[in-house]
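Quick start: read one record
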Amino acid sequence: MAIGAKDKERERLDSELLDDEFEQEEDTQEDKFLTFVLGNEEYGIEIRYVTEIIGIQNITLVPDMPEYVKGVINLRGKVIPVMDVRMRFHMQDRKYDDRTCIIVININEQSVGLIVDQVSEVLDIPKTEIEPPPKVKKDSSSLFVQGMGKVGDQVKIILNADKLLYGVEETLKSIGA
């Protein structure tokens, strides 16, 4: 094989490898969930929505917001609204401590911080291990549940990020977020 032909063959192989790596990167977030704790329960949210996890920050209160929208934070020059997930689920209020975190998610070009008791880990939960939520009653917190993820002998409550923010979008727009 001539030198020019070898170079072209190498370029073709490099190109194919890069394409394969790109496809693998897209697949790496599938079936992955960031798990976090609220009270005694563990919840999960699809990792593809998560942009970062930060410690609790100074929150600027914004008047006339729903109780669960705690206000906004300044994250590297960007104003991000923050929602207390405990309050969104009508759970008992809890003082923030050194384990309290803000999970910054991005849905439909909107960044929102979710205040949680603590972050646990990233788990692989295949679709085959996620069952639909039980149809017990239609209260506001069950509306946010996408499914029940089976991990060993435990169950993680998988949240639907879109529904978690449902009804909040207009509120967020009103504060310019």
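The longest helix spans residues 3-27.
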